[in-house]
Amino acid sequence: MNEKEMEDLLWEHPEKFLAEPLKQLERQERGPVGRCDLSFTDARGDILVIEVKHGTLTRAVQDQAVRQLSDYFGMYKARFPDKAIELMVIANIILNERILSCARYDIEAKAIPEEKFREVANEVRYVFLSEAAGVPPVGPPPKSTPPGRGRVTKNEARLAFWVAFCEYARDKAPQIKRFRPKDGPSVDMPLGQTGYRFKAWIFWDEGKMGVRFKGDGPIVEQLRQYQQDIECRVGAHVFGMGKMETAILQVERQADFSSRDNWPELHRWFADAIMKFEDVLVPYVMKIMEGQKGQSD
Q1: Domains contained in the chain, CATH given
Q2: Model's pTM, two decimal places?
Q3: Enclosing H/E stretch for 30
């Protein structure tokens, strides 16, 4: 586990760690005084700024966090002068004396042990990529197979593919950092700020992969008025029908998952398809949603 993974879980599930409903504001926001880990707004509209530290909050780490949060206070106060700014440092282990010392600077020091992060990760099926090196290769076992270890299961193979894709995305397509690996055939992702979600999927046995948006059905039918423009920008025929005769938008391709040598090319296609799908669809979905809001008003 590392700080990035702690951030991932805090960002996506703050209520599971901080016991209050929080709305995402910014993550890794760069300003003139540095880059803030996380910021949220609470039910009162106040801003909570969080600095995340993995492991123990030592004296040196505490001094660093105090300096950073003091700078971030100024950064956010300059942007939101009418908002109350609250400061928090989170680490896995914090001595009580350091909790009291941080309070002197109006900084809440909150200890959240690794066990809590692992508990939440297990609940939401989050995989710690920093610990995923032990995922076995796909295919037949070597001749010197360790006792009790044979050919990997399909679920293990799919998990290895998703984990490898997440590593690729973090390096080559950071826009997809919210992608969560799992051992199932598909992963949900938010479609921008629309409130809708879309799926990246792999059919391991059939040798297919793709990206699909189903929405709530009617939204896809409304998107048909822009079909020509959408398909031109995506570069493929995307409108179709799902298994339950539900209107969907989808792009897919054949894929040979059996050899890891093929994975980098499949990962490149996935990243391009996911980003293109989101870039193309979000403006049209937002346009339809704004039209619906105007009619209701």
Answers
A1: 3-121 (3.40.1350.10), 151-296 (3.30.1460)
A2: 0.51
A3: strand 23-31
